[in-house]
Amino acid sequence: MSKIIIDVREPFEYKMGHVKGALNIPPSRLLSNPPELADVPRDAEIVVYCLSGSRSNATMPYLRQMGFTNVTNGINKHHVEKNHL
User: Fold this and answer.
1) Domain limits, the chain
2) DSSP 63-81
3) Chain centroid, CA 3 distance in Å
4) Among 23, 42, 54, 58, which has the highest number of CB atoms less than 10 A from its own CB?
């Protein structure tokens, strides 16, 4: 099973540089049950990150409410590249 990496920063931040293959789903879109996650198994490994870890930490409960059970806060782009790829 592959790992899903979600960058929860805003699109303009994502465009300035992101983890290769990361989905860009800001919190406002995450709340509306984004189609990118519709077919993702609920036990898939999901790593969320932002700039400082604050926004990604805040989005974790929403992902859990959506039924995802294996969610990790990757903190930021550099931390994810170092520890989760």
Assistant:
1) 4-83
2) HHHTT--EEEEEEEHHHHH
3) 10
4) 23
Percent of the chain's residues with pLDDT above 70: 99
What mean pLDDT comes out for the span 7-23? 97
User: Does residue 1 have a pLDDT over 80?
Assistant: no
**Residue with structure tokens 């860009």?**
24
Cα 78 to Cα 59: distance, rounded to the nearest angstrom: 19
Buried b (16+ CB within 10 A) or exposed e, 24-45: bbbbeebeeeeeebeebeeebb
Question: What CATH code would you report for 4-83?
Answer: 3.40.250.10
The model carries a pTM of: 0.94
Q: What pLDDT shows up at residue 20?
A: 95
| Token pair for 5 | 């990496």
